[in-house]
């Protein structure tokens, strides 16, 4: 069964989508939340396979909720399900770590297919979102690999440069050892280096460490 957490502040939307999802033989909605803060709490507590996340909610919006979930649990798979397609919502949501991006106007069957595809490791984007991302990629030229690093990844890279072990990094920034290992792997991949030593050399060479 694909375990799903649905976070949306509109009860009727939750009822409609949950009913359709629950009717599927391979999907189980294990919990619902009506705001981002509660969504983060349930996501980290239940560790569902898929998190369906609305964007505009009280207490905490979906972008911040997604960011916090991914920060604490990098392997989480978040599907944004929203009514918004403006740049101020799309890019921040994907940069926060959302895996897929769907619209509430999508057919229920399309959302189900997105759940299954995302669970299988694929990324599902509305055609409009794909177009926006392609345009942005053409416009944005990354001059240096480290420009792709997140703030947390830069923080961890600097700690690596200080000679700290993964466990020491975990203790310093208050995250799990497993999460540190995921960040380190992402850092090496983005910097296109093979090991921590090369990452440190890169850091000094590009002025990240003085």
Automatic annotation (TrEMBL):
<dbReference type="InterPro" id="IPR011006">
    <property type="entry name" value="CheY-like_superfamily"/>
</dbReference>
<dbReference type="GO" id="GO:0003677">
    <property type="term" value="F:DNA binding"/>
</dbReference>
<dbReference type="Pfam" id="PF00072">
    <property type="entry name" value="Response_reg"/>
</dbReference>
<feature type="domain" description="HTH luxR-type">
    <location>
        <begin position="142"/>
        <end position="207"/>
    </location>
</feature>
<keyword id="KW-0804">Transcription</keyword>
<dbReference type="GO" id="GO:0000160">
    <property type="term" value="P:phosphorelay signal transduction system"/>
</dbReference>
<feature type="domain" description="Response regulatory">
    <location>
        <begin position="3"/>
        <end position="119"/>
    </location>
</feature>
<dbReference type="Pfam" id="PF00196">
    <property type="entry name" value="GerE"/>
</dbReference>
<keyword id="KW-0805">Transcription regulation</keyword>
<dbReference type="InterPro" id="IPR039420">
    <property type="entry name" value="WalR-like"/>
</dbReference>
<dbReference type="InterPro" id="IPR016032">
    <property type="entry name" value="Sig_transdc_resp-reg_C-effctor"/>
</dbReference>
<feature type="modified residue" description="4-aspartylphosphate">
    <location>
        <position position="54"/>
    </location>
</feature>
<keyword id="KW-0238">DNA-binding</keyword>
<keyword id="KW-0597">Phosphoprotein</keyword>
<dbReference type="InterPro" id="IPR000792">
    <property type="entry name" value="Tscrpt_reg_LuxR_C"/>
</dbReference>
<dbReference type="InterPro" id="IPR058245">
    <property type="entry name" value="NreC/VraR/RcsB-like_REC"/>
</dbReference>
<dbReference type="GO" id="GO:0006355">
    <property type="term" value="P:regulation of DNA-templated transcription"/>
</dbReference>
<dbReference type="InterPro" id="IPR001789">
    <property type="entry name" value="Sig_transdc_resp-reg_receiver"/>
</dbReference>
<protein>
    <submittedName>
        <fullName>DNA-binding response regulator</fullName>
    </submittedName>
</protein>
<dbReference type="GO" id="GO:0005737">
    <property type="term" value="C:cytoplasm"/>
</dbReference>
């Amino acid at each position: 069964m694909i375990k799903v957490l649905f976070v949306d502040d509109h009860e009727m939307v939750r009822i409609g989508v949950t009913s359709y999802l629950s009717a599927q033989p391979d999907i189980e909605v294990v919990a619902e939340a009506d705001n981002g803060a509660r969504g983060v709490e349930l996501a980290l507590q239940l560790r569902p396979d898929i998190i369906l996340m609305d964007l505009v909610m009280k207490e905490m919006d979906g972008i911040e909720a997604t960011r916090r979930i991914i920060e604490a649990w990098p392997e989480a798979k978040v599907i944004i399900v929203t009514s918004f397609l403006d740049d101020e919502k799309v890019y921040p949501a994907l940069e926060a770590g959302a895996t897929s991006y769907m619209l509430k106007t999508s057919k229920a069957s399309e959302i189900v297919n997105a759940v299954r595809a995302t669970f299988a490791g694929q990324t599902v984007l509305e055609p409009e979102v794909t177009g926006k991302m392609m345009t942005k990629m053409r416009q944005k030229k990354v001059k240096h690999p480290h420009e792709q690093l997140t703030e947390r990844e830069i923080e961890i890279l600097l700690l690596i440069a200080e000679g700290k072990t993964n466990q020491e990094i975990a203790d310093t920034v208050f995250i799990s050892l497993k999460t540190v290992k995921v960040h380190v792997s992402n850092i090496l991949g983005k910097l296109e280096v093979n090991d921590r030593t090369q990452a440190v050399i890169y850091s000094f060479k590009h002025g990240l460490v003085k």
